[in-house]
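Record WD40 repeat domain-containing protein, 337 aa.
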Amino acid sequence: MTPFSVIRSAMIPSAGPIEDFDIVRLDGRSFLVCVDTANGVFLWDPSEDRWSKHRLDMPFHEDSGIDGIEVLAIGAVVHDGRIVVGGGADHQPFAQWDLESGAVRVFVDESQAGLGQSLGMELDGRPMLVGGDSSTSPRVRVWDVERRELHAELCEHHFDGLGALTSGMLKDRPVLVSGSWDGSAVVWDLRERRSLVEFGRYVGGLQGIGLVLVGGRPRVVAASRDDVVLGDPETGEWGEPLAWPDDIAELIEEDEFDDFITCMDAGLVDGRPVAVTGTGEGRLYVWDLEDGSVLGEPLAGHNGDVSAVRLTELDGRTAVITAGRDGRLLMWSLDSV
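=>
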């Protein structure tokens, strides 16, 4: 059984492949904000398969002496009917822009480190943009988009740069979960602006992080280069890694498997908890988080790395959207999961 199939595809109108994307809803429609490896920012309208390129103004103050812009990680939200984006890269700290006009809303703070991860979210109905440092001893910063001010600065638990961020609810608490290249993960309470639980380091560093109900209980889902694993947000303990199919497990045991995980997202599909991982050779795997197995055969959807993956609701059904270093966006149906 193949649990999903391509229902839509698009090629970014750029010479640079897609590095990252985020999804927003505006006027009842979904839009993707994408960045390429040449720091270009694009908006894709899936309903009309229409692309538009957007120039962002210089995010550094005039007296900085810096005349370049670098955006390889991006988050997006909607505020007052307009798309607002936040992003940066290894050598550029977080900044915030109005997408349509390109005007800077929040300038770079040069005392901060470069950006490794970014995402858009809501906190008690207010749009927020989150940025996670790419440096050692990284910090996670949550920006209130309406007020254009820092809501929270979260730190002290990671030692290496951030490889993954996700937001969600833990019981009645809005939380953020951060994962680091050092293998650590932290669940943060966004109202109280403090850590709730810290997970020990998982071997291989974290390429993706999620928060989903499994068996009626909240679980942190993490992906390293080699494994997918569930963690208990009450105890901060990791479980055993989920089982690869026998043929892949044998290659891993013999150290002959080099199709490493590059990204992951997790969520519910018709009440069933799943994770979707993308790999360095363009394959996609769907994981059943209830029984810990891979569903169906892997799909070779991209030519080269899968750079980002998101589970989302689109036209009333759950879909997976993947971006690849081949410049393509692919939209997958999960109807048969």
